[in-house]
Design brief:
The protein is α+β, with helices and mostly antiparallel strands. The chain contains 27 helices and seven strands. The strands form two sheets. It has a five-stranded mixed sheet with strand order 2-4-5-7-6. A two-stranded antiparallel sheet has the order 1-3. Strand 4 and strand 5 form a beta hairpin. The termini are far apart.
């Protein structure tokens, strides 16, 4: 590690005699792999600077070298990153070197973000952005730091700010033709979708990455993209595409000896064979990766290598090695505060222990994995990402469409007159088609009207036929019988077979039949009138008390004969607005039904209940009652059945249907409640009287 203190820089002699040799010595510790060409180059420049006689640590070139080295080793020597960045920040602050302060804050932001101290990381990045904002310039450094801030928001699972930040980076990068940043921002967005396990969308954005990188990218950049794309295909279990992409990467990394990327690529190659259940081949690639990482300090890549090795040894039934590598991955993930690494290592440790029947250990890892999974991603952020995904696609496609349209319009100017000509022809055709369409529409409308009229006429004819059939049925069964019997009596009397005294003996029976005939005829006439097309009601103010009392008097002889008491509890002050003749028929039918089904010495009660705009009338009896099945069909038109009363009184089955039609025509409703052997209550409502 590089540890240099600059509080004694006033004495250059002291620096050269004590600090400089130490720094040169410590630089040798960075010589770990031949692939770190850029790091070595920077270190040589630092050595050259330190060896100069006129060297001063406040030299901006030296500060820039410290920042560059800190950036290059951020994946390999994180402690040295902190030391170098702090030194750079101190030196830059002493001479107010803004560019040095910006880069030092950016490196410190990276360091603390990777170490899991997200708040500290964000504060350093904010300071860098504040300095850049004061300069009021948009350059590559500004866009890079904006991208770092977005990456930090991603680590905080704040997908809204992360996605907004990457979108802003794309727009800013386009303004300054910073194509590599456009490409990398698309890659960052792709990673957002990977994080949400939307791998299909992630693949789409990796293709945008490749497209955006065409102008400036080096082969190594493409190799890195192919590696990450292969990792996504592995998650999709699309092993053929994963193999094609990773083979491209491995070929380049082996050729250029880029060992850090090569180790990662070998890990992915091993994962592909693992998913294909080719465990020995998988182990071969993973061990090659492990051999590379032994000489590197890339802890993030090592975590997932150990997880894959643990999976492989589990499949090979080598549980001790599986647990060993699973724990290595877990401990390294905890050390580096890597949430994904912790979750995946815990999951593999659970599966290993479960397969070995170490149930106590397995349960502990299972509970830890569930806890980590539940807290890893909030539903709110998922829905936000989906919403922003739609917005992102829309905005990008919209901009691309605008560009294409502008080019198309430019190329089509020479064809404008021809286009106008075709438009005129099209307008004529459309006009002709429209006129024909309107004519057809008019004809169809007329046909539909006629069809509806025919259907309505057909419906009316069917109803008239039903009415006719009902009338003939009632006349044939309920009127012809009593009249025929009366006719036969008169014949017998005329022929002398029946004496006067015997005829007088039939008078009570004849009277009863005539009353029934009269009641039935009255219902038939009322119902027939109600069925007539165009028939109307004539509402007026009616006293319910008087109407009920008149019908009580009319039915007095029948009620007296059965010993039935009718209680008119309707107040004399109750008035309704309805057709008097129709309501008279309703009350008479309901009272007649109550008398019919009430045994001797029974009681019929009529009461009213005031409602907001109407009166509710109740006709109740303590008669034989009905079950729910019978009450359900009482008011149906196709219900022709009539029930005999307590003394075999016969009815037409028409009365209640007539009541329903007349009540509804007078803006009311009718219903019934009944309990077998306890009685029935018929209810209907009518509007209150209208006040002048």
């Amino acid at each position: 590690m590089i540890i240099v203190f600059f509080n004694s820089y006033k004495s250059q002699k002291f620096f050269f005699q004590s600090i400089a040799p130490a720094l040169i010595f410590l630089l040798s510790f960075f010589q770990v792999n031949s692939q770190k060409i850029k790091q070595d180059s920077i270190k040589k420049e630092i050595e050259l600077k330190l060896s100069q006689k006129n060297f001063t640590p406040n030299d901006t070139t030296y500060i820039n070298l410290l920042n560059s080295l800190a950036y290059e080793i951020k994946y390999y020597n994180v402690d040295s990153v902190l030391t170098l960045s702090n030194q750079s920040l101190q030196l830059s602050s002493e001479i107010n070197y803004l560019d040095g302060k910006i880069k030092a804050h950016a490196n410190l932001g990276d360091y603390y973000a990777d170490a899991g101290y997200l708040k500290k990381g964000r504060n350093h990045l904010k300071k860098a952005i504040e300095i850049l904002n004061d300069q009021n310039t948009i350059n590559k450094l500004y866009v890079d730091i904006k991208s770092k801030m977005s990456g930090l928001y991603l680590k905080e699972n704040n997908f809204t700010k992360a996605l907004n930040g990457y979108l802003e980076c794309i727009e800013l990068a386009k303004k300054i033709d910073y194509n590599i940043r456009i490409s990398s921002s698309y890659e960052d967005i792709a990673y957002l979708f990977v994080h949400q396990k939307d791998y299909v969308e992630a693949v789409k954005y990796y293709k945008k990455v490749i497209e955006a990188a065409k102008k400036e990218a080096e082969p190594g950049y493409y190799a890195g993209i192919f590696t990450n794309l292969a990792a996504v295909y592995v998650k999709m279990n699309d092993l053929e595409n994963a193999r094609k992409n990773i083979d491209k990467s491995i070929q380049y990394f082996e050729k250029t000896n880029k060992l850090d990327w090569l180790g990662y690529a070998y890990t992915i190659r091993g994962s592909i064979y693992l998913l294909k259940n080719e465990f020995d081949e998988s182990l071969n690639w993973l061990l090659k990766a492990e051999n590379i990482f032994k000489n590197l300090d890339d802890e993030r890549s090592e975590i997932f290598l150990y997880i894959e090795l643990a999976k492989n040894y589990k499949s090979l039934k080598k549980s001790e090695l599986a647990i060993k590598y699973g724990l290595r991955g877990y401990n390294l993930a905890v050390k580096t505060k890597n949430p994904r690494g912790i979750r995946e290592s815990v999951e593999v440790l659970y599966k290993i222990n479960k397969s070995e029947n170490n149930f106590e250990e397995a349960l502990a890892y299972h509970e830890l994995h569930k806890k980590l999974s539940d807290s890893a991603q909030s539903i709110e952020n998922q829905s936000i990402l989906v919403a922003y995904k739609s917005k992102l696609l829309h905005d990008i496609e919209k901009k691309e469409l605008i560009i294409k349209n502008e080019k198309a319009l430019y190329n089509q100017k020479k064809y404008i007159y021809l286009s106008i000509f075709f438009l005129i022809i099209a307008a004529v055709i459309i006009t002709f088609v429209t006129l024909n369409k309107r004519a057809l529409k008019k004809i169809n409308t007329e046909l539909n009207i006629k069809k509806e009229a025919l259907e309505e006429s057909e419906k009316e004819l069917k109803e008239l036929n039903k009415t006719k059939d009902r009338l003939f049925s009632i006349i044939g069964h309920d009127l012809r019988g009593p009249i025929g019997a009366f006719k036969e009596l008169l014949k017998l009397f005329d022929s002398g077979l029946l004496s006067k005294e015997e005829l007088l003996g039939f008078v009570p029976r004849i009277k009863k039949d005539i009353i029934n005939i009269s009641f039935t005829l009255n219902n038939l006439l009322s119902w027939g009138q109600s069925q007539m097309k165009g028939s109307s009601i004539q509402p007026k103010k009616i006293s319910l008390y008087k109407l009920i009392q008149e019908n009580s008097n009319l039915l007095e002889e029948i009620t007296h004969k059965k010993g039935i008491t009718i209680l008119n509890n309707v107040p004399t002050s109750v008035y309704v607005w309805a057709d008097k003749n129709q309501i008279d028929v309703v009350i008479r039918n309901l009272m007649s039904n109550a008398i019919k089904f009430t045994p001797k010495n029974g009681k019929i009660t009529l009461t009213t209940t005031e409602q907001q705009n109407s009166w509710q009338v109740e006709v109740s009896d303590n008669g034989i009652g009905m079950d729910k099945k019978k009450t359900k069909h009482l008011f149906l038109k196709n219900n022709n059945k009539s029930t005999y009363g307590t003394e075999n009184e016969k009815g037409t089955g028409l009365g209640l249907i007539l009541c329903k039609e007349m009540i509804e025509k007078n803006n009311g409703t009718i219903w019934v409640k009944s309990i077998p052997n306890k009685g029935s209550s018929f209810f209907f409502t009518l509007p209150k009287e209208k006040l002048d």
